[in-house]
Amino acid sequence: MPGDLELVSEWRHFGGWMRQYAHESAAVGGLKMTFNVYLPPQAETGPVPVIYYLAGLTCTGETGAQKGHFAKAAAQRGVAIVYPDTSPRGAGVAGEDDDWDFGTGAGFYVDATQQPWSKHYRMYTYVREELPALVTEHLPIRKGKAGIFGHSMGGHGALTLAMRNTDKYASVSAFAPICNPLEVPWGVKALKGYLGDDRATRAEYDATNLMLEKGPFPSLGTILVDQGKADKFLDQQQLTPHVLQEACEKKGQSMQLRIHEGYDHSYYFVSSFGEEHINFHADALATL
Ligand SMILES: N[C@@H](CCC(=O)N[C@@H](CSC=O)C(=O)NCC(=O)O)C(=O)O
């Protein structure tokens, strides 16, 4: 049975509501979690389809809600957007606030297996199970398959959650995702820290590996990825979208990789293509 939601704040937005809720989370070991949700005007007359947006390193549930500019399209299409946090907060793990790319704000959407992270750093289960159960129980959000998208670390989360749970997600897209965390500096640090040295365990959270080992995933349709060409993290080999594209080609998975001249990694990039991502998911959810 899902727990209760505490309304923290609400703002009228494009005829609907942006709300922020807090709740006690069993998934992350009893800590308080906060998320944002956009409910379009159509939610006043009945349950609407939902898209989950996973944010990147250093972000919270507020980041995509405030800077993604997704709500206008969501209101037009009658879809809700749920914005989870990017990690547990206040877990009390020694060193969790030392680095911006590991620990607080950097949960990587995995269920940690390593001490001292494994009690609280369980964002995979939080996003996959607990949060959907809560929002469909308490809010006018349709049960059944959802869409999922994200940015950078959140793009990695969206891709891996969708590929591992095709019964739960109908569509997936990403902005500048970390496509091959097994092999890139951010991913090596985080996955080894949370999951240890066993490569097979870490590989379960690697989109490129999942595509090669378990793909294709025809029920997901086309995987949409937008990437800015002037993104400094692309140059630093943190994102490697072409590696995922090659894996998709090898396995016969439809993927649309769009490289955008001049765009960087920021929310100026994300928000420039946000409407297209909302329409992409709304189209998929409308067929269910
Ligand atoms: N502090 C870092 C930069 C952190 C950063 O750019 N975070 C991105 C996500 S990166 C991958 O997950 C982000 O979305 N930031 C929030 C924002 O509002 O832009 C550094 O020193 O480079």
UniProtKB/TrEMBL annotation:
<dbReference type="GO" id="GO:0005829">
    <property type="term" value="C:cytosol"/>
</dbReference>
<feature type="active site" description="Charge relay system">
    <location>
        <position position="265"/>
    </location>
</feature>
<dbReference type="GO" id="GO:0046294">
    <property type="term" value="P:formaldehyde catabolic process"/>
</dbReference>
<dbReference type="InterPro" id="IPR014186">
    <property type="entry name" value="S-formylglutathione_hydrol"/>
</dbReference>
<comment type="function">
    <text>Serine hydrolase involved in the detoxification of formaldehyde.</text>
</comment>
<feature type="active site" description="Charge relay system">
    <location>
        <position position="231"/>
    </location>
</feature>
<feature type="active site" description="Charge relay system">
    <location>
        <position position="152"/>
    </location>
</feature>
<dbReference type="Pfam" id="PF00756">
    <property type="entry name" value="Esterase"/>
</dbReference>
<protein>
    <recommendedName>
        <fullName>S-formylglutathione hydrolase</fullName>
        <ecNumber>3.1.2.12</ecNumber>
    </recommendedName>
</protein>
<keyword id="KW-0378">Hydrolase</keyword>
<dbReference type="GO" id="GO:0052689">
    <property type="term" value="F:carboxylic ester hydrolase activity"/>
</dbReference>
<comment type="similarity">
    <text>Belongs to the esterase D family.</text>
</comment>
<dbReference type="InterPro" id="IPR029058">
    <property type="entry name" value="AB_hydrolase_fold"/>
</dbReference>
<keyword id="KW-0719">Serine esterase</keyword>
<keyword id="KW-0963">Cytoplasm</keyword>
<dbReference type="InterPro" id="IPR000801">
    <property type="entry name" value="Esterase-like"/>
</dbReference>
<dbReference type="GO" id="GO:0018738">
    <property type="term" value="F:S-formylglutathione hydrolase activity"/>
</dbReference>
